[in-house]
Amino acid sequence: MRAHRGETPLKVGSPQQQAMLAVLLLRPGYSASATDLISALWGEEPPSAAMTTVRTYAWRWRKMLDAGDPGAEEEGARSGQGGRPASSVLVSMGDGYRLVLPKLAVDSAQAESLAAEAERIARIDPLRARDLLNQALELWQGEPLTGIPGPFAERHRQRLEELRLTLLEERIGLDLALGRHSRCIPELTSLTTEHPLHERAYGLLMRALYQAGRQADALAVYRGARQLFLAELGVAPGAELDQLHRRILEGDPALAAPEPGPAARQGPVSGAGGEAAAAPVRAEGPETGAVPGGAGDGASADGAGGRDPAGSRADAAGTSGAREEGDGRDGRDGTAAARPAAAPPRPAQLPPDAADFTGRTAPVRVLCEALGAPSAQALVIASVVGMGGVGKTALALHVAHQVREFYPDGQLYVDLRGSDPVPADPEAVLSGFLVALGVSGDAVPDGLDARSALFRSVVDGRRLLLVLDNAKDAAQIRPLLPGAVGCAVLTTGRTRPAGCPPPSRSTWTCSSPPRRWPCSAAPSARSGWPPSGRRRSTSWWPADICRWRCGSWPPGSRPGRAGRWRR
User: Fold this and answer.
1) Is the separation of the CB atoms in 101 and 128 below 8 Å?
2) Of 174, 133, 143, 152, the residue nearest 21 (C-alpha)
3) Torsion of Cα atoms, 151 then 155 then 156 then 161, to 10°
4) Which segment, 48-62, 273-287, 492-506, is predicted with the most confidence on average?
5) Which contacts (CB < 8 Å, 24+ apart) does range 493-498 have?
6) For residue 429, what pLDDT is reported?
7) Rounded Cα–Cα distance for residues 491 and 396 (Å)
8) Given pLDDT bands bounded at 50, 70 and 90, which one contains residue 466?
């Protein structure tokens, strides 16, 4: 605690004496009763001489605060108190005391006043609001109430530290809105180290890193914060941080950094969340359609340079279209427009459709009906089940190509190798999916559950088609299922994947075993060709050739067409 009369510093006495004045300074109206003072200094177990001690402190403070004050001496002379002047600063009020001070005589009150003014003008003039917050933060000179005892001082130490953190985060949020992200990163890194459980600081750091083009580092900050919260508190970060994480993954254009400069003054700013300022509104000229700029831009040149009206209209139309599509800056007036973020990738991983696909009219129709209209209520899952080699993959790919237009955000495909001795690992499959959807390899978390949760977050709001070919069982499929409505999953496998989450509608198309060709005399693998006792001119000969050559598969099936002579 420090006190001044004008430019002259005053002695503040012992810590206990300072504690009494701190109570009066920080209470509304600068007043407190004797009971309040005793409770604030000693809590529930005050000493027996507490009242006497308070009176002694009050006498010392009056002597110190009124020393050299001619107004107090004149008041004392009028009151007939002789040489003992009445105090003009610390006055009695019942059994307590009140300080007679200007409203903003205490630096904490001044800081709160500056913060209120900054909040009022933040959306009108963010640069001025930022300067006001800086002035408020400069009033802190070390830890407040250092060394002052008592429960009242301890409570207000915590309150003033929280106020400082709040003002600091507000100021950093305005810095980010003004395009000063590079300056904020070191400060935020230090802030998250000093206050590791302060969630909002992590969000500001993630935003600053993303605006600096360091998306992987921003996602790494989220992973570190999430692991810390789970380890220390047993809970995951709040919804606000989770939403920011998802927006960074999706490349939300609203998170892009505005251009630094005077134009940033005009954009509205969210003081609480540090949102980026919106691009200033720019009106088009009534005649030429040109976009007028600020001082020093090329607006006047357009009017005086002899440009034809048609060219001006075409130029303005192109500029307007660029702004509507988020293609960056205007290019003529130097005013910051909303900087676009890269559009999220649209994977197209479907293998080519079979050019010679024929038949299976009914299964194709049923599957296309199920997948061609994505549900608005739940995930759609359709499956093709049958023994190996009957054409499940060909059917699934043919249907996927038929309905791909209903899933404009992309199509994902994977062979899960369910019939192999070592099936595909869902964790590795999710890593591939995430990278295909635009997640940096460094940002892919470890562990099946973490990757599955991140995958669901990334695909939320998108319309994707997933083809999970040759699946082994439900345990392999479940982690790969998106949680978003509007997506669809088409699986193939030799068995039905029982145990998957119940979809809104599910179509199971089971292929029956291939029909054998009727033959009167089936050739044996051990027999020669032609069979003994037969002549080539008999009617069974073409059927026997097909059966032997195609390995008992129908000639129209892919294994049948790919069959080889056994001899």
Assistant:
1) no
2) 152
3) 140
4) 48-62
5) 493/383, 493/384, 493/385, 493/392, 493/418, 494/385, 494/386, 494/387, 494/388, 494/418, 494/419, 495/385, 496/383, 496/385, 497/383, 497/471, 497/473, 498/474
6) 92
7) 8
8) very high
Among positive and negative, which fits the CA dihedral 243, 246, 252, 257?
positive
Using CA atoms of 16, 20, 21, 25 in order, give the dihedral in degrees to the nearest 10: 130
Is 314:321 a contact under the CB 8 Å cutoff? no
pLDDT-derived band at 442 (thresholds 50, 70, 90) equals confident
For residue 295, what pLDDT is reported? 37
Strand spans (E) along 321-461 = 380-385, 411-415
Instruction: Tell me the C-alpha distance between 267 and 278, whole Å.
Output: 5
* The two structure tokens encoding residue 474: 């439900």
pLDDT in tens, 128-173: 999 999 999 999 988 888 888 888 888 989 999 999 999 999 999 9
Order of strands across the sheet that contains 96-99 = 31-32, 96-99, 90-93
For the chain, give me the number of helices (H) and strands (E)? 20, 10
Question: Distances from the Cα of 530 to the Cαs of 516, 534, 542, 546, in angstroms?
Answer: 20, 7, 11, 13
What pLDDT does residue 279 have?
36
pLDDT 10s digits, 73-120: 444 444 444 444 556 788 888 888 888 888 888 888 889 999 999 999
Distance (Å, whole) CA 262 – CA 184: 19
Q: Which residues is 489 bridged to in the sheet? A: 381, 466
Question: Rounded to whole angstroms, what are the CA distances from 315 to 70, 332, 367, 446?
Answer: 75, 11, 49, 50
* Cα–Cα nearest to 187, from 278, 276, 274, 268: 274
Instruction: Locate 116 and state its tokens.
Output: 């209120």
Residue for token pair 């088609």: 465
Q: Give the global pTM.
A: 0.46
DSSP per-residue string spanning 356-385: T----HHHHHHHHHHHSS--SSS-EEEEEE
3-class DSSP state of 491: strand
* Token pair 């919106």: residue: 278
pLDDT tens string 484-524: 778 889 998 887 766 665 544 445 555 444 444 444 444 44
Average pLDDT in the 66-77 region?
51
Is the pLDDT assigned to residue 527 strictly greater than 50?
A: no
- Compute the residue count for the chain: 567
CA 74 – CA 275 distance, rounded (Å): 57
Give the Cα separation of 188 and 203 in Å (integer).
10
d(CA 419, CA 493): 8
Question: What tokens were used for 437?
Answer: 């959807």
178: phi then psi, degrees, rounded to nearest 5: -95, 5
- Evaluated on CA atoms 5, 9, 13, 15, the torsion sign reads positive
Residue pointed to by tokens 């940096």: 440
Report strand pairing: 380-385 vs 31-32: unpaired
**pLDDT grade, residue 221 (50/70/90)?**
very high
Average pLDDT on 34-62 reads 87
